[in-house]
């Protein structure tokens, strides 16, 4: 039917929470601390649309080396204006790659990364 959500395990909960809420502007839908797991679970959305579960766990293993390791390759967000979004993220201190053109659709996109080096793509709709 559709993708329900994407789960991300972070290495530093406070840093990742600030990144996804303050830098990317996702909204907190629910936040819980699961004492038995020593784990936070933060549900994030765009508007009312639930999209990301951000987890913290004690000592999670590092992500495999990039760029083409097995597993999730990147997380992509739709934006109205790629140039504006890239400039906004640069002013917030992110290192953003140059804008590229999708050879099949002709749409603009660029990549940056979250605090744990998870590649993030911003794709113009």
UniProtKB/TrEMBL annotation:
VOC domain ranges (all copies)? 2-125
Q: Which keywords belong to this entry?
A: Metal-binding
Q: Which domain of life is it from?
A: Bacteria
Q: Which PROSITE patterns match?
A: VOC
Q: Which Gene3D superfamilies match?
A: 2,3-Dihydroxybiphenyl 1,2-Dioxygenase, domain 1 (3.10.180.10)
The reply to whether Metal-binding figures as a keyword in the UniProt entry is: yes
Record GO terms (molecular function): metal ion binding
Q: Known InterPro entries for this protein?
A: Fosfomycin_Res_Enzymes, Glyas_Bleomycin-R_OHBP_Dase, Glyas_Fos-R_dOase_dom, VOC_core, YwkD-like_dom
Question: What name has this protein been given in UniProt?
Answer: VOC domain-containing protein
């Amino acid at each position: 039917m559709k993708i329900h959500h994407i789960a991300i395990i972070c290495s530093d909960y406070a840093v990742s929470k600030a990144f996804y809420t303050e830098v990317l502007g996702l909204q907190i839908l629910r936040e819980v601390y699961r004492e038995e797991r020593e784990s936070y679970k933060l549900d994030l959305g765009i508007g009312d649309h639930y999209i990301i579960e951000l987890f913290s766990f004690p000592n999670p293993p590092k992500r495999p080396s990039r760029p083409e390791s097995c597993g999730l390759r990147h997380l992509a967000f739709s934006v109205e204006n790629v140039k504006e979004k890239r400039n906004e993220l640069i002013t917030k201190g992110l290192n953003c790659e140059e804008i590229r053109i999708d050879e099949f659709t002709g749409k603009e996109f660029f990549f940056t990364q979250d605090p744990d080096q998870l590649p993030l793509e911003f794709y113009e709709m």
